Amino acid sequence: MITVIIIVGIALTIAISLILLYNGMVNGKNMVDEAWSGISVQLKRRHDLIPSLVSAVKGYMTHEQDTLTKIAELRAQAVSASSSGSLSSIANAENQLMGALRSLFAVSENYPDLRASENFMQLQEQLALLEDEIQLSRRYYNGTARDQNNRVLQFPGNLVARAFGFGKIEYFELADPAEATVPEVKF
């Protein structure tokens, strides 16, 4: 009788542990999905802002059509990548788009009338705020991905993860490691 109680107690402990591990992984996956949703909302806002920015700049930058055309193409690629669902293709497309926008703002320095335009300045400020929000969303996403990866890769969670099909989550990282370097400032 005592042996049966011990076996039932062990089985019950194992069952409860498995349930808690599984529920923790489901919770972690939901947190990752929520974090990704936050990133996609911010990226959509950036995609919606870019046409306004390009149209505000067009009148001033007649000699910079290549830059404007490239931004329009990269925006279309980023929107297309967002619907593909592949995190690496989304990150790559968004990083290219951000690089093109940076070059637009660098080129805008050559156009004092454009720099004085209130509309351009407001759009530039909105884009800067959006970039900050995207960075915050990225950090939150990567944090939830890290937590989920810990659950999925650590023992005994890895056994439960394998049994129920939970996998490692990709991080939303910079495509170009050179973007992470600190720029050199010369006076």
From TrEMBL:
Membrane association type = Single-pass membrane protein
UniProt keywords, alphabetically: Membrane, Transmembrane, Transmembrane helix
Chief location: membrane
Please list every transmembrane segment annotated in the UniProt record, as residue ranges: 6-22
Its signal peptide is: none
- Which InterPro entries does the record match to this protein? LemA-like_dom_sf, MamQ_LemA
A Pfam family it matches: LemA
Q: Which compartments is it annotated to reside in? A: Membrane
Cite a GO CC annotation: membrane
Give the family, as the similarity comment puts it: Belongs to the LemA family.
UniProt protein name: LemA family protein
Organism, scientific name = Desulfovibrio porci
Native organism taxonomy: Bacteria, Pseudomonadati, Thermodesulfobacteriota, Desulfovibrionia, Desulfovibrionales
